[in-house]
Amino acid sequence: MNIETRNTTSTKRDGKRASNRASNRDAILQAARTVFAELGYGGATVRDIIRRTTLATGTFYNYFTNKEEVFEALTQESGEELRALLSAARQEADNFEQFIEASYLTYFSYYAENPETYHLVRSNRGRDGGNINMRGPQVTAGLAEMRQDIERAMKLGMIPQNDAALLTAAIGGVAFSILDEIMQGDKIDPQGAARFATKLFMRGIDGGIDGA
Amino acid sequence: MNIETRNTTSTKRDGKRASNRASNRDAILQAARTVFAELGYGGATVRDIIRRTTLATGTFYNYFTNKEEVFEALTQESGEELRALLSAARQEADNFEQFIEASYLTYFSYYAENPETYHLVRSNRGRDGGNINMRGPQVTAGLAEMRQDIERAMKLGMIPQNDAALLTAAIGGVAFSILDEIMQGDKIDPQGAARFATKLFMRGIDGGIDGA
Amino acid sequence: MNIETRNTTSTKRDGKRASNRASNRDAILQAARTVFAELGYGGATVRDIIRRTTLATGTFYNYFTNKEEVFEALTQESGEELRALLSAARQEADNFEQFIEASYLTYFSYYAENPETYHLVRSNRGRDGGNINMRGPQVTAGLAEMRQDIERAMKLGMIPQNDAALLTAAIGGVAFSILDEIMQGDKIDPQGAARFATKLFMRGIDGGIDGA
Amino acid sequence: MNIETRNTTSTKRDGKRASNRASNRDAILQAARTVFAELGYGGATVRDIIRRTTLATGTFYNYFTNKEEVFEALTQESGEELRALLSAARQEADNFEQFIEASYLTYFSYYAENPETYHLVRSNRGRDGGNINMRGPQVTAGLAEMRQDIERAMKLGMIPQNDAALLTAAIGGVAFSILDEIMQGDKIDPQGAARFATKLFMRGIDGGIDGA
DNA sequence: CATGAATGAGTATTCATTCAT
DNA sequence: CATGAATGAATACTCATTCAT
Predict the structure, then answer these.
(1) Residues of B in contact with C4 (CB under 8 A)
(2) Which of A80, A81, A27 is closest to A53 using CA atoms?
(3) Which of A74, A109, B11, D89 is deepest in the core (most CB within 10 A)?
(4) Looking at the domain D71-203, which fold is it?
(5) B3 vs C contacts (CB less than 8 Å)
(6) What is the enclosing helix (H) or strand (E) of B19?
(7) Which residue of C has its CA nearest to B39?
(8) CB-CB under 8 Å, A129 with C2
(9) What residues contact residue D202 under an 8 Å CB cut-off, 6+ apart?
(10) Which residues of C touch D165 (CB under 8 A)?
(11) Nearest to D207 among C43, C196, C204 (CB)
């Protein structure tokens, strides 16, 4: 898959390799992921993307109508994936603390294992002057799901009544920030980070976060 | 007919020049603030900025050399302001809870009162593909200051020992997210938001956040 | 309405593109030759060049990256040509006088037959504030070749020992000046000019230049 | 005179130094000479010139209407000077050989002593696409004078009948080329160069140029 | 479907020149 | 006369997008 997408500086005219029709879309997506991660959405050009490909300029427009559209597809892809993982993780939780911890762990682990996707998202929070939600439609959707779960938990008395919107926002915000923090270091420890965030949320600072 | 001759044929040649000299810089800054807030740094062009002004293209370059430079001036300005407010607020705190609450309150209030600045910052987190720190030098500096205060508090035993980096990140993340959340609504309530965030941090969900 | 969207609204969208691909480069070169001849390198703009063409702005950059580069291509082209002609002419000379006369004749004839190239070179001696050698790399190379031939002739005793550098410079200078002189008139006579210059060089004024 | 013209990076607002009214023109001329020599006519901007001055932008236009005009004034100045020197030198000649040698010596010496003027002229031969004669009005005038002297010499039988136009052109061409040649080296020897050129012109190569 | 040359609107920036002070 | 901020036309170059092959 790597071999396919890397531009080999050949005049790329064999008409064999490129004929792997269905995979052209993937080649573009893969190239775009890298380019967006490196240059950010605003800095990336369609040319940058196809240049990382064996394809020709025009071919791009057979699969996407826009730079916008590739970006969307890209975030959709990983967003969907992450959302599914999160959803699954939450289903297995027996109590709220497990629910939170599983969420954080899934989230941190996902980006720890897909650093390029992390950089893609990271470089492009807040892009486009707010026309598009900072976090992409999937993150929004993911947060909405979580909020529903939280509201359900409140109704069931698993956690005290609270402003679910703020609570969800807080959970998300902590996730983003701590993710940034741990992705900067060398020894990325999703486990530890998840436990930290969970304890903080369940019992607060006074709860002696590390104090088990 | 000389090659080097530039034609001039002015169009907009009224007494505009007589306008308060020093205020041109402000006019540009003000226009830039709006434009960046609306279009984001990447989407904004120098032309967009001067177009919101009575000034001519070239005049921009009498005050700034770059789009970059106006942006910097803008974030510096508000960043410095907010940082000073935060620093002052923290100094007056008697205990850690007050420290946290004052910080949140100051932060939320500042943006509630300067919504355009909020949008400016909001539209430009993560701009430029990561070349420039997502939060601008001032926010970074502000967070570093807060972290020092937190570490001091830990040493003094005011709060349990903890990973100060993660804790600071978490506080910042919650601030960002909740700010986003409240800035979307109509009835912005910095007080309530600050109290919510503070309780969450001090005692966690189980602490009965709303439990006054 | 998306910020990144560029509007297109073409205007000049006929079958122009169908035109002989390879000939676009030539079209640009031809236009550039004329423009440089008329306006000089410094006075000419890339826009001036493409304006003399049916092509669009961007097309220029598909073939050349610079004004510099077209100019180089242009002088290279004719420089190489002239240099080859000169070299060939000298090879056939049996004695030094023939050597000189053949050189002058070739030189004068070449520009008499390519007046546009003459104007191109003429308008651009000394361009760019000396950054680029006044006479272009080919003329320099051509003079260096001639100098080697002259030094050889000295060694062989065909002509008296002399400062070859000054001698070559003098030959070149006479060529330039007389070329300018004859290109201004109506009845251009390369033969006569070559004979004049040759006699002057061989026997000096006292030699009775016109004296056949 | 140097102190006056060098920009001292002060905000230059004393209003004392600049009031030396008559000398402002000179200051501009001196600055322009340097700038044109360094950047060439095309590359130089009016701003470059005034920047080397203690004067303000607008002041330039109190003395000259154009970049063109300063350049003209500059070449006029030195052209006039050189022309006078040449004319004087020729008057003292007793025979044609002295006439030629005096001319060359004066010419080479003048530029050897005014290298900045040399670079000014050198960088700007052929500027402006032929709109302005390559050599400036003064050089043209100087050559016309010389031509008249040559024609007079022919009538008087001092030198053989010849095409005076070509002869003058040749003399000028040799002067330019050899000047270039000697100005490149370290040990500039106007005397030797003048003798070389003179012998070449009087007796040609076969005359044994160096051979006395 | 693939190709890639052609297109031209758009952007940042410069600079000669004016003119209110 | 001197000043220098203001002006805006002009330039080089980019890049999303089209379309003939």
Answers:
(1) 43
(2) A27
(3) A74
(4) Tetracycline Repressor; domain 2 (1.10.357)
(5) 39-40, 42-43
(6) none
(7) C3
(8) no
(9) C204, C205, C206, D96, D97, D100
(10) 181
(11) C204
User: What is the amino acid identity at position A74?
Assistant: L
Model-level pTM? 0.77
Q: Is the CB of C94 under 7 A from strand F?
A: no
Cα→Cα distances B196→B97, D44, D51, D114, D168, Å: 12, 65, 60, 81, 96
For residue range C48-65, what is the model confidence (pLDDT) as tens digits? 999 999 999 999 999 999
Q: Report the sign of the C-alpha dihedral through residues B112, B113, B119, B120, in that order.
A: negative
CA of C5 vs chain A CAs: smallest distance (Å): 9
pLDDT digits (tens, 9 = 90+) for A157-206: 888 888 888 888 889 888 888 888 888 777 788 999 999 999 988 988 86
Instruction: Check: CB of residue B212 under 8 Å from CB of residue A210.
Output: no
As assigned by CATH, the class of the C68-206 domain is mainly alpha
- Establish whether the CB of C11 is closer than 7 Å to any nucleic acid atom in strand F: no
Q: Judge: domain B67-207, CATH 3.30.43.10.
A: no
- D35 Cβ neighbours under 8 A, 6+ residues apart: D44, D48, D49, D52
Tell me: domain A73-205, CATH 1.10.357.10, correct? yes
- Test B40 with C4 for CB contact under 8 angstroms: no
The CATH number assigned to the domain with range A2-65 reads: 1.10.10.60
Nearest to B110 by CA among B95, B94, B132, B88: B88
Question: Given a cut of 70, is residue D18 above it in pLDDT?
Answer: no
Domain assignments of chain D as residue spans, ordered by start = 2-65, 71-203
Cβ count near A82 (within 10 Å): 20
